[in-house]
Write a structure and sequence with these properties.
By secondary structure, the chain is an alpha+beta fold. It has 23 helices and 13 strands. Helices cover 51% and strands 10% of the residues. The radius of gyration is 27 Å and the shape is globular.
Length: 524
């Protein structure tokens, strides 16, 4: 009895013990969390995306997505979520991940209506206190068109093929390095790493006739490659909550991160200045490069191109053009080595083409090989270099999904090449299988049926994006890929060092791999 009387008394005494300032501190400390909870709850409850399924936390906060990026398995997790929830998954308070390949042509258009989200914007730099974008990172469609127009033609297949002599010198040096370091003497070759050196040296050679020098050094001697990886880690994680970039990178008081791409910037700037002053000793006018094209574009379009824009072109060539190509080449070799029948067939086709074993394979001839094409396409389908959603804002008219549901203007949506590349509606029940034959006409398959099937597959291929923001460098990338695969397959016997060892894939916008360790020997 007494205790029930004492309890309120004790409580009152306790409150008295908590003096007035303490109570106000306690109240103040609770205000922020309570406001946040209230704000999140109201936003969640009032969001027009509430009806779409997805992980509970994802509907409340983009921190959930940061955690998915940090896991390194973003692509696998998204695929699983689609298996669980269906073609539409809400992966952020205002973001839907869609597995409707038929929407690629609706969303990735050339009409400029589907704007990139702010996800892309942290891939920019502060120049004289002003945030400066390049062709990849700008979300302003008019600015993008102004940047792209003067240089688009230099990425056409015709112009890319004029760069083939650059590629041939780099490939010749790659062969020499592989011979001297791994064939004789016989040593284990981390082919994945060497493909990276090749891709970085090639893109710098094609861009400013100067190599980074990774093949000569045999390692990432100035850490540019590992810094580029860290920059992507930052890009992919901070892009989920774009305003955080203004605290970390674009903070005017104290810059916290990401690591500076100082080496790439320095080499680009040095090359630009030397070329403008006519002192670029690396440049051979009979072998044009992108820097020369960009300078020509400044002459042709002085109203659109200045030196800052040229720096943007140079940087984006490096950042978008090296790792993506390396990832694709690694994927081709990985899947071939995992599938000996495929590999044997590829070897037979390449060898029958009669390429000179001591020279880089010419692109025009390599491109004629149907099985090589099928292998490359299949490898890119199963392992697209970019394996996160390409986010866009739904424009004023909204988006009606194939199932009739409506997504209002202002919501963000995206398709992920990794997910749509496994859509069973397009690729069939064996969508997860590496089967290059799916790209070829089947025995007994009528021409018209094959044409329709191929069109359906092409329409679902998001490897290089689509519409006005489609990958500018896709021709360059494919020429590099076809040439190097045909050359290496023709020259070397390549096997896994340990077939039981799996590679590691870390998805941070690019799905980069580690551990394609091989033994290689000269073909007889
Ligand atoms: C196999 C290699 C490559 C793959 C798979 C690839 C993939 C992509 C993808 C998916 C996009 C679209 C991003 C989006 O819409 O959000 C893109 C954009 C871009 N890529 Fe590539 N890329 C490759 C190689 C290259 C190369 C070699 C270059 C340049 C030398 C390059 C330059 C660009 C640029 C400038 C953009 C931005 C285009 C724009 O917004 O107008 N890429 N790439």
């Amino acid at each position: 009895m007494s205790s029930s009387l004492e309890s309120p008394l004790l409580l009152r005494q306790g409150l008295v013990l908590l003096n007035a300032p303490a109570v106000s501190w306690l109240a103040a400390a609770l205000v922020l969390p309570l406001t946040l909870v209230a704000w999140f709850t109201v936003s969640w409850a009032s969001s027009p995306l509430r009806k779409y399924p997805g992980p509970f936390l994802a509907g409340f906060t983009n921190l959930w997505r940061v955690a998915q990026v940090q896991s390194g398995s973003y692509h696998l997790r998204m695929k699983k979520l689609h298996e669980q929830y269906g073609p539409v998954v809400r992966i952020g308070p205002n973001l839907l991940d869609l597995d409707y390949p038929e929407l690629i042509k609706t969303i990735y258009t050339t009409d400029g209506k589907w704007r990139k989200t702010e996800f892309y914007e942290n891939n920019s730099a502060m120049v004289n206190g002003k945030q400066t974008f390049h062709m990849f990172s700008t979300t302003d469609q008019a600015e993008h068109a102004r940047m792209k127009r003067p240089v688009a033609k230099y990425f056409s297949l015709g112009h890319v093929l004029a760069l083939e002599p650059h590629m041939d010198t780099v490939i010749t040096d790659l062969m020499k390095n592989l011979d001297d370091r791994f064939v004789n003497p016989k040593k284990t070759c981390d082919l994945g790493e060497w493909v990276g050196f090749y891709a970085w040296d090639l893109i710098s050679s094609a861009t400013f006739s100067r190599r980074f020098g990774y093949m000569d050094a045999g390692h990432d001697f100035d850490q540019t490659i590992s810094i580029a990886d860290k920059a992507l880690d930052y890009f992919s994680a901070v892009g989920q909550i774009p305003w955080v970039d203004y605290l970390l990178d674009k903070n005017p008081v104290m810059r916290i991160g990401p690591p500076n791409l100082s080496n790439i910037t320095r080499i680009s700037l040095e090359s630009l200045i030397a070329r403008m002053q006519g002192k670029d000793t690396n440049f051979n006018p009979s072998m044009p490069d992108y820097l020369q094209h960009f300078l020509d574009s400044k002459v042709a379009h002085p109203e659109l191109v200045d030196d800052g824009i040229i720096m943007g072109y140079l940087l984006v060539n490096m950042l978008a053009g090296a790792d993506t190509t390396a990832i694709t080449i690694r994927a081709v070799f990985y899947f071939c080595l995992r599938h000996p029948d495929t590999y044997r067939r590829l070897v037979a086709e390449v060898r029958a083409a009669g390429f000179d074993r001591d020279r880089p394979a010419p692109y025009a001839a390599a491109r004629q090989l149907p099985y090589l094409e099928a292998v490359v396409r299949e490898a890119m389908r199963l392992h697209p270099a970019v394996s996160m959603p390409l986010e866009r804002y739904v424009p004023a008219e909204g988006l009606t999904l194939p199932d009739g549901r409506y997504v209002p203007a202002g919501a963000a949506v995206g398709l992920n090449a990794y997910v749509v590349g496994r859509n069973v509606g397009v690729w069939g029940e064996d969508a997860e299988a590496f089967r290059p034959d799916r790209w070829l006409q089947g025995e007994g398959e009528a021409d018209e049926d094959f044409k329709v099937r191929l069109q359906k597959m092409h329409a679902a291929d998001l490897t290089f994006g689509g519409g006005s923001r489609i990958c500018t460098g896709r021709n360059l990338a494919l020429v590099e890929v076809y040439k190097i695969v045909a050359t290496l397959v023709n020259r070397y016997e390549i096997d896994f060092e340990d077939p039981n060892k799996e590679w590691e894939v870390l998805c941070r916008w690019f799905a980069r791999q580690k551990g394609l360790v091989t033994k290689i020997s000269m073909r007889v």
